[in-house]
Design a protein that fits this description.
By secondary structure, the chain is mainly alpha-helical. It is 57% helix and 3% strand. It has a two-stranded antiparallel ribbon with strand order 1-2. The N and C termini lie close together (12 Å).
Length: 189
Amino acid sequence: MSEPGAPTEAAASPETAASPPESTKTGPGRLLVAVYGLFALSACARAGTQIATEFGRAPVAYVLSAFAGVVYIIATVTLVNGGRTARRIAVVSCSVELAGVLAVGTWSVLDPASFPDATVWSTYGVGYGFVPLVLPVFGLLWLRRWNRRARTEPAVVPAAALVGEAAGDGEGVSRAGTPTVDSRRSSGL
C-alpha cells in the first residue's frame, strides 16, 4: 500500500497507456517501417516514371506497380502511426499485399505475355530478391505480436482521471464528476 501523497503507478507513468508495446519506433519495428518506406518510394517512383513515359507498352504491369506502391505507402504510414485503428488498417494492407504478391506472382508465371515488363510483385518478387513475398508475412507476424502485447498489458489509469487515489481507497471521481474505480485494486490485483 502506498503512502498518502506518494505517486501511484498510474501517476508515475501515464504515458504507458498511450504508447504501444514494442512499437515501430525501435528495434525490428523500425527496420520493418524502413523497408516498407523504401518499397513505397521505389514502387511509386518506378510506376510513375513508367506510366508517364511508356504506359502503352505494359499498362497492366505499370498499374499493378502503382497499386503496389499505394499499398506500401498505406502500410508505412499505419505502422508508423501505431494506434489501434492504424494497426487494423496495417493488417488489411499487409493482407492485401500478400494476396497481391501471390495473385500477380501466379498470374505472371502462368501468363508471362501479360507482363512484358515486370512489376514489384511479378514472379513473386524475384526481381527484388523475394522481399515482396516475405515482407507482408513479417509485417503480419509483427502486427500479431504487437496486438497480443497490447491486449495482455495491464490497463494503466491516468492520474488525472482519479481524485482521491492517493488516499488508497482505489476509487475516485473523474473530472466530469463520475465515479471511477481502479480495476487493479477492485479485483484484488
